[in-house]
Structures are given as C-alpha cells and as structure tokens.
Amino acid sequence: MTTEDFRSAKNIATFYPPQRILMGPGPSDTHHRVLSAMARPTLGHLDPVFANMMEEIKDLLRYAFQTKNKMTFSVSGPGSVGMEMCFVNMIEPGDKVVVCRNGVFGSRMIENVERHGGVAVVVDDKWGEPVDPQKVEDALKQHPDAKILAFVHAETSTGVLSDAQTLCELARRYDCLTIVDTVTSLGGSPIKVDEWGIDAIYSGSQKCLSCPPGLSPVSFSERVTNLVKNRKTKVHSWFMDIGLLLGYWGSSTRTYHHTAPTNSLYALHESLVMLYEEGLERSWARHRRNHEAFKAGLATMGINYVVDEQYRLPQLNSVYIPDGVDDKAVRDRLLADYSLEIGAGLGDFAGKVWRFGLMGTSSRVENVVMCLNALETVFSDMGVNLKRGTAESAAHQSYAENPMP
C-alpha cells in the first residue's frame, strides 16, 4: 500500500485523549507534576545523570516500602511483570508454594507457580473476605516442605485487605519465604517490609502512586538474594533475572541490560518525591478520610459494601449494585455525562459489583463530592427514589468529623 493509498483509506491524525476523572480500580489520575516530568528531555539509559536519578528512585522506594533492602528498584513493566519476577527467580521445578486465593490476583499467583514448574498448595477464601491465617497455618503444618507463602495484601478485584504482618509471621515460623502483592496498597495503606519480615514484594506505578502504568516497584530481602545465588537451575527468564538486572541497577558499576523507559522513570521519581513530601502517614490518613466520606454518601443511596468494615481497602471501594439498577447503563452515563470512569466487577462479581477507586491523586475531596452527586443524578433519572443532595451532605459531615491530622 502506497502512502497515498493509506491516506485515502485511513483518517489518522494526532491523538488527543479526552480528560477523564479516573475513579476505577486503576489507573488513577496522574498529577500534572508527574505528567510534566515525563515531558522532559530524554536521556540515554546509561547517562551518569540518569544513573544518579535511579539511585534516588531506589532510596525513595525504600521509604515507600519501609525497608533497607539493597535490592529495591523498579522493573520495566506493569505489576504483572513484578509478580512474575518474584516467582521466576524464587521457584525451581518441584518447589512447593502455599498460595492464598481470595480473588482474581491470587489466581494469577497460582498460574505463575505452575508455569514455573512449582507445585501450588491453594488456600481458598471467599471473595470479599481476607486471607484466613488459621487456614494458612493449617496448610503450612500439612506441608512442612513448602518453600514459599504467596498472598495478595490488597485484592483489587474485591477491595479486601489481608493481614500481611500476621501472615508473614506464620511464614517465618514455618521457615517459608514470602511473596506479597501490594499493587493496590503501596502508598495508600500501611506497608512495613522490614518490620513485617516480607521477603519479596511487588507493586505497580499506576495506583496510589498516581504514575502512568508500566513500572513495577519491587524489593527483595537478603534471604531472596541468597536463594537466587544458590539456585540449582538458571532463572527461566533472561529479562527478569535478578542477578542480571542488578548489574544495571547496581550503585557502583552499571552495565547494559535493557533500554530502560527513561521518561517513565522520571515520572515515577516525581510521584515518589510527592509521596515523600506529603509523608506516608499523611497519605494513608488522606486515603482513609476520603473513603469514610465516600462511604457516608453511598449509605444515603442504600449502597452496601462487599467487604466487612474492618477489612476494607480505603482506596478501593467495592460495593454491590442496587437491585433494579443497570450496571452498564450507569457506568456508560457516568463516562458520557461526567467523563467519570468507575470499575465493573471481575470474575464472580461481574454484573454484581462496582469498584470505586480513591487512589493517589484521585483520592481528593472534589472527586468524592462530584462522584456522589453524579450517582444521585443518574439514579434519579433512572427512577430510583432518593433525595438529591443528601449524599454530598453526608460526605461533608464525615469530613467535618474527621479532620486531617
């Protein structure tokens, strides 16, 4: 096809995305400071100035994860790559791994274990419920040869938060390493890698860090470093081999491994600087405060949460769709009339649940109020009997009762 033929067949020009308000399960809104950072001049991935920034990213990630782990850096790829990096480096054929499944992402962990030649011992809990530590301990007792315990800290498909500290204590008691998914929790809920004794942890750039998708922060303990050094077999992925990546992310010498996404790493750096400026504790408090206000507003519309209050993720609000309300019609109206994106249910929850994200930059007062008013309007137009303005009033009352510390 010639250029002229292509031009006549296609009407393609510069792409200008619409301005959305992202209140789904991710990505979240990207702050203008982070977008501005991405637009700065591209440097070579071995440039010494860029290398200095990479060192700062490592320090900032140590702060975010609350760890002193030397092996703390960012993988070039989304959280799914961070997940696979943990499993591909830590599992050898025949290794037994206890995997907790209480939603979609626990299932993905099982898939990783099996694809890398491991044997998955599955601990199941009902969707919307946290991982049951007693079930985990029972599994560890029944399988004393288990090498790893893997679980999702914040299950994005359901909005439930599991007790990572207790689960990691159990793992150490039974001489297991841990792999922990914190894609949705990093920056929004407390994570204390060193204090809790987490061995391998991964997250994503696009949730509470409010950075564009495509990077996965990870951190590994000395126990993992020693495990990988003493493997009997080669790591099955060249790209995700920790030993090779450390040659690039090392602090003294830096050897070529792959062409890192330099501008995306500028963005991650800026988002982590913003988290540091705000302070972890204040970020956790902000996410909690906005969740409480949003919850108060939803209650006036008779909308109920999937997860019991003590286990709810403040940054991922998973709620049942009210009887008689059309799931897709509401989401379509919110997107068309308000440029507001919310999340649908996954797997067993498809068509039954909405997922509202209050993550990172998206977790702010104006988003809570706007979303509640938009829902009231759409519900009212669909014939739902409610009093307009009640949800916003309840949210403001919650804010008055819960000032920021």
Automatic annotation (TrEMBL):
Its cofactor is pyridoxal 5'-phosphate. InterPro entries: Aminotrans_V_dom, Aminotrans_V_PyrdxlP_BS, PyrdxlP-dep_Trfase, PyrdxlP-dep_Trfase_major, PyrdxlP-dep_Trfase_small, SP_NH2Trfase/AEP_transaminase. It comes from Nitrosomonas marina. GO terms for molecular function: alanine-glyoxylate transaminase activity; L-serine-pyruvate transaminase activity. Keywords: Aminotransferase, Pyridoxal phosphate, Transferase. Pfam families: Aminotran_5. Substrate binds at residue 355. Residues 42-331 form the Aminotransferase class V domain. One of its GO terms (biological process) is glycine biosynthetic process, by transamination of glyoxylate. This is Alanine-glyoxylate aminotransferase apoenzyme. Belongs to the class-V pyridoxal-phosphate-dependent aminotransferase family. The modification N6-(pyridoxal phosphate)lysine is found at residue 207.
